[in-house]
Design brief:
The chain is of the alpha/beta class and about 290 residues long. The protein has 2 domains: about 120 residues, no CATH class; about 140 residues, Trna Endonuclease, Chain: A, domain 1. It contains 10 helices and 9 strands.
Length: about 290
C-alpha cells in the first residue's frame, strides 16, 4: 500500500461521504416527515442526490486504490458496487420505530474509508464533525423526538429512556452511563457517544423552582467531569414544561464558570404529572 496516496486522498473522500449522509437525512424527512432534525432542505431530490454522490465516491475510490497499489481492495470494491447498483443506489432500509433510514451502499463506503484512515494511523476528523453535527441536531430537537413517542415524560428517567432509545439507534458507539474517573469519585453521565468523546446529561424541569436545581446540577457536573482523556465534550439538555429559562442564559452561565467544553440546550415540551400524582395519592395514610 502506498500510504502517501491514501493520506492525501482520505480527507477528500470523507467530504464526499458527508454529502451523501446529508442526502440520507433528506430521505429520512421524505419517509417519516420532518422529525426536527435533518439536512434543512439542501436537496430537492435526496434519493437521486445520494445515488449520484455514492457513484462519485466509487469513481474516486477506484482511482485512489489503483494509485495506492491496493488491487485486492479495488476488486472487492468493484464487486460490491455492482451488487449495490443492481439493487439501486438510492435503496434504503427504513426503521419506523426509530424514524431513521440506512443505506447499505453508504454503510459499505463509510467502513471502507474508515479502514483506509485507520491504515495510515490517523484519527477521524471530518467524520467526527459529521457525528457531532447530527448529535447536536438531535439534542436540540429533543422536544420533537419526545412528541413522536405520543406520551409525555413524567420525570427525568422517562426522558432519558426516550432519548437513549433514539441515540442508541443512531450511533453504534452509544454508551449508557460511561464512567468518568475522578480523584475521589467516579462520575457517570446519563449517556455518551464514544467515538467523539461526547458525554450527555438530561435535566427535567416541571416548575420554575426546579430551574435552579437543574442549573446547580449542571455546574456540579462541569467540575466533576474535568480531566478525562476519553470524554472531552459535554452536553446538557434541559427539558422544561414551560419556557421558564432561556438557552442564552444557560450559555452565559456556562461561559461564566469557564465550562468551555460544555454546550447547553433548553427545550420546551409537555410533561405527564399523572405518575407523581399517583405516588402522592398512594402515600402513607395519616394515623389518628
Amino acid at each position: 500500500m502506498n500510504s502517501g496516496v491514501v493520506k492525501s486522498a482520505v480527507g477528500a473522500l470523507e467530504k464526499i461521504l458527508s454529502k451523501a449522509k446529508d442526502a440520507l437525512w433528506g430521505i429520512e424527512r421524505e419517509v417519516f416527515g420532518d422529525p426536527g432534525y435533518g439536512n434543512d432542505g439542501i436537496y430537492d431530490y435526496p434519493r437521486a442526490a445520494m445515488a449520484a454522490t455514492v457513484e462519485q465516491l466509487y469513481d474516486t475510490l477506484l482511482v485512489v486504490l489503483e494509485a495506492a497499489e491496493m488491487p485486492d481492495t479495488r476488486n472487492s470494491l468493484v464487486k460490491a458496487f455492482h451488487d449495490f447498483k443492481s439493487k439501486g443506489l438510492e435503496t434504503t432500509k427504513d426503521y419506523e420505530e426509530y424514524q431513521t433510514c440506512e443505506s447499505p451502499a453508504l454503510v459499505y463506503f463509510e467502513n471502507l474509508i474508515r479502514g483506509l484512515r485507520i491504515s495510515i494511523g490517523e484519527a477521524v476528523t471530518s467524520e467526527e464533525a459529521w457525528t457531532l453535527n447530527r448529535l447536536e441536531s438531535m439534542l436540540r430537537d429533543t422536544a420533537a423526538l419526545v412528541h413522536r413517542r405520543g406520551e409525555p415524560p413524567a420525570n427525568e428517567i422517562d426522558l432519558q429512556k426516550i432519548l437513549h432509545d433514539y441515540l442508541s439507534a443512531s450511533f453504534p458507539d452509544f454508551r449508557h452511563n460511561p464512567p468518568i474517573g475522578g480523584t475521589l469519585k467516579t462520575f457517570k453521565p446519563d449517556c455518551g457517544i464514544a467515538s467523539v468523546g461526547a458525554a450527555i446529561e438530561f435535566k427535567f424541569v416541571r416548575t420554575k423552582e426546579e430551574v435552579a436545581v437543574a442549573g446547580s446540577g449542571i455546574f456540579e457536573d462541569t467540575a466533576g467531569y474535568k480531566g478525562s482523556k476519553d470524554w472531552t465534550r459535554f452536553y446538557s439538555v434541559i427539558y422544561q414544561a414551560e419556557p421558564f429559562m432561556l438557552e442564552s442564559h444557560l450559555a452565559s452561565d456556562l461561559k461564566r464558570v469557564g465550562a468551555a467544553t460544555w454546550k447547553g440546550f433548553v427545550v420546551n415540551g409537555p410533561t405527564n404529572p399523572s405518575k407523581s400524582k399517583r405516588k402522592t395519592e398512594r402515600g402513607p395514610k395519616k394515623t389518628k
